[in-house]
Amino acid sequence: MNTVEMKYGKEKISINLEGAKSVSILNERPMDEIKDLKKAFKKGITTEVINSKPLNEIINEDDKVTIVISDLTRFWQRQDLICEQLVNYLIGELKVKHENIVVVVALGSHRKQSEEELCKLASKSVYDKVKIVNHDCDADDLVNVGTTPSGTEVYVNPLVVGRKVIMITGTVHHIMAGFGGGRKSIIPGVAGRQTIRQNHIQSLSKTEKRSDPLVGARLLTHNPINEDMNEAAKFIDVAFGINIVVNSSSKHSKLICGDFHDAWLKSCKYVDDAYGLRIKKEADIVIASCGGYPKDINLYQSTKSLFNATRAVKKGGALILLAECSEGGGAPDFFNWIDPLKRGVLDEELRASFTIGGYIFYAACESISKCNVYMLSSIDPDMVKDMKITASSNIEDLLNKINCKNKDIYVIPYGGNVVPLLEED
After folding, report:
1. Rounded to 5 degrees, what are φ and ψ at 24?
2. With 0-12 CB in 10 A as exposed, 13-18 as middle and 19+ as buried, what is 225?
3. Tens digits of residue pLDDT in 65-99
4. Domains along the chain?
5. pLDDT (tens digit per residue) in 246-259
6. Which residues, including other chains, have CB under 8 Å from residue 18's CB and lie 6 or more apart?
7. pLDDT (tens digit per residue) in 149-166
8. Which residues have a Cβ under 8 Å from the Cβ of 97 and sit 6 or more positions away?
9. Vertex 18, ends 17 and 19: CA angle to 5°?
């Protein structure tokens, strides 16, 4: 295989790998795709529930019901289609009054969604029937439901207290919590800002200037972020969980429903079986695409591909990341941390003023330190040089820097999806 074609922005780039010792393509395993969503949803909440009664034995017609869904940054899971099925079922079959149903968008500390966005997130049908609200992590009426063993004071939206709560979440690998979805809809989803900070700062080692080694994609056992989230979730009486898994085309592959924790754990295994790809050894060179626009719209969005791709390259090897970054570095909460990096105080300042975007920047710098990172990008090369990234808008320039001759190369067409797993680990 001399040439590979990969997505870059809204285009495709051909890359000549002539002379390489070996070229292996790393793709996720083929996944099922739901053909009849209504049928799959009905099975998921009735005959195929995990460690739970079916939904119709949990919700009564006089209950006040809160449905929690994710915000626009996670719209890839298309929870609007599931939310529509759920509300139709609650009102049409269980006879729950529409005025007793409220949909809460689990923003965490993200920006408020517009009315147009709320309609998109929950579906027009749901928007026209029931109340839809943004969570506000700085609201005055947040409820203190307890303190976790690690000391996180858990303040949550009052709409998830004293009501029947149904969580709709999407499960993916996650750089901090091991896997997204499930209990992440509580922290950070519907939690207070200080609660989020107290939980997320546990991603940093207590004894060294580095991330806690127990924090990372796939890691659940002893992961302090995950375990603290699980403890916080115990304070919320979640009646039912609906976990969405999608394929790389954002088509629904599986709905795993039932007990909030147990059904989510099963969805994690399903995700890992599909996207966790075992490799026998690390390669000399890894060439990874984010999957094109909008996955490579900025550097912040591109970091997931960076994290995954560096797992597959030898220490001191080379990574070429295809990330156009048409909007530059991304949100200020991410890229403004370049200044403390330049001053050599990134660790100290992040611990003093922890933010999620800041930690993603911090973790990106850690991943980059493993190998030589080159980025095919429209970003200004001077913007990323202090991160130890060599950027160019010309693929030939980058290929000339790494020399593919007699090298083992991995090609990852969808870097944000595939999580390479070294067999010896």
Report:
1. -120, 135
2. buried
3. 999 999 887 777 899 999 999 999 999 999 999 99
4. 3-27+277-422 (3.90.226.30), 37-246 (3.40.50.11440)
5. 987 788 999 999 99
6. 2, 3, 404
7. 999 999 999 999 999 999
8. 61, 62, 91
9. 115
Whether the bond into 54 is cis, omega within 30 of 0? no
CA-angle at 25, arms to 24 and 31, nearest 5°? 140
Structure-token pair, residue 165 = 């709560």
Strands 313-322 and 372-376: parallel
CB 233 within 8 A of CB 261: yes
Name 234's Cβ contacts closer than 8 Å, sequence gap at least 6: none
Q: Decide if 26 contacts 6 (C-beta within 8 A).
A: no
Say whether 227 sits in a helix, a strand or coil: helix
Query: In whole angstroms, what is the distance from residue 256 CA to residue 238 CA?
Result: 15
Taken as a whole, the chain contains a residue count of: 425
The closest of 324, 308, 274, 288 to 409, measured between CA atoms, is 288
Crossing angle of helices 79-92 and 115-122, rounded to 10° = 70
Sequence-distant (6+) residues with CB within 8 A of 327 are 297, 298
Buried b (16+ CB within 10 A) or exposed e, 113-125: beeebbbebbbee
- Nearest to 418, CA basis, from 223, 280, 217, 252: 217
CA-CA distance, 331 to 329, in Å (whole number)? 7
Element holding 351 (H helix, E strand): helix 346-352
Alpha-carbon span 365 to 203, nearest angstrom: 15
| Model-wide pTM > 0.85 | yes
**Which residues share a beta bridge with 411?**
25, 287
